[in-house]
Design goal:
Length: 314
């Protein structure tokens, strides 16, 4: 098991280095000069040049990258060009807001969708199967921003059950904080259920065709025992991988939901920083998201043998 963990860690390191280089290079293609943007339209060329020197933008890209990477390894992600705030605490606080929504949404979606996919596979080609697959396809096809607006309109404006826009920290007010998170979480749960139902159904169908399932039935086991004791454990591996991918994707791609519900999360911070040409914050956000994605997939790989007995962690 130790060798398995070390191999996965060694495989993750080149990915992290490649991500860091890619993040640094790509944001340099964002049009606009941060120094000119900070000083305004009335700034003189010598003022802009002095500001570029202060920000280190007058150096070559390799020099800028080496300085930035060295600081990052020491936990210094720089300071925001816009407000001078330290990037790492800012990104971490916004990330926690996004994680509250994403982790709960993925957990609830998995709790509902995995049993639904199992039932759809068990009742293949029946009315139940067609209903579940049709529902999953519709949910998968609906854009999250449109679904969020519909839920906001119905539960927030029409019924008045939930707050429409804004955010309250759970630490400051638990009840109000939970109420503000209901609609964003509900939006993600409904959308991601479509993906997970189809994945759980496909992997379960593959397992149900194997010989040991026929043997289990021949021994006289009930269908419930066959499904939960034999089919589910072997079919959950691919679904577990999909859950990890969804979790990683949502942590970096929740900007649309945060914009719809005006939630001050990481995605919203990234969008605002792009408009402000705030290089240090953009780099911090992208690097934080990328590292989170790599970490989530690493955890999925390490836990995979627990969910699929056919995989041996050597």
């Amino acid at each position: 098991m130790l060798k398995f963990i070390l191999n996965r860690l060694l495989m993750a390191l080149p990915t992290i280095v490649l991500v860091a280089v890619t993040v640094f290079i790509l944001i340099r293609f964002i049009p606009g000069d941060p120094a000119a943007l900070m000083l305004g339209d009335m700034a003189q060329p010598d003022q802009i040049a002095a500001m570029r020197t202060e920000l280190g933008l007058d150096k070559s890209m390799p020099q800028q990258f080496i300085i930035w990477a060295g600081n990052v390894l020491q936990g210094d992600f720089g300071r925001s060009i816009v407000n001078g705030e330290a990037v790492l605490p800012l990104v971490a606080s916004r990330f926690l807001v996004s994680a509250e929504i994403v982790v709960v949404a993925v957990f609830l979606a998995s709790l509902i969708a995995v049993p639904a996919g199992l039932i759809a596979a068990w009742r293949q080609n029946s009315l139940t199967d067609l209903a579940l697959v049709g529902t999953a396809t519709i949910l998968l096809s609906v854009p999250t921003f449109w679904l969020g607006l519909l839920l906001l309109l119905f539960f927030g404006l029409k019924l008045g059950w939930l707050p429409v826009l804004g955010y309250v920290s759970i630490g400051s007010n638990i009840i109000a904080g939970l109420l503000y998170l209901v609609l964003p979480i509900m939006t993600l749960v409904i959308h991601e259920m479509g993906v997970l139902i189809r994945m759980a159904r496909a992997s379960t169908l593959e397992v149900l065709r194997l010989d040991y399932i026929t043997h289990a039935r021949a021994k006289g086991l009930s269908e419930g025992a066959v499904l939960w004791r034999h089919a589910f454990k072997n079919a959950f591996g691919p679904t577990w991988t999909m859950i990890g991918l969804i979790l990683g994707n949502l942590l970096g791609g929740i900007a649309v939901i945060e914009t719809v519900f005006t939630i001050p999360g990481l995605g919203r911070l990234m969008v605002d920083s792009i408009f402000a040409r705030d290089y240090p914050v953009i780099q911090g956000c992208l690097l934080f998201v990328s590292l989170s994605y790599v970490l989530v997939n690493l955890v999925v790989d390490l836990l995979y043998p627990l969910f699929d007995p056919r995989v041996v962690a050597e």
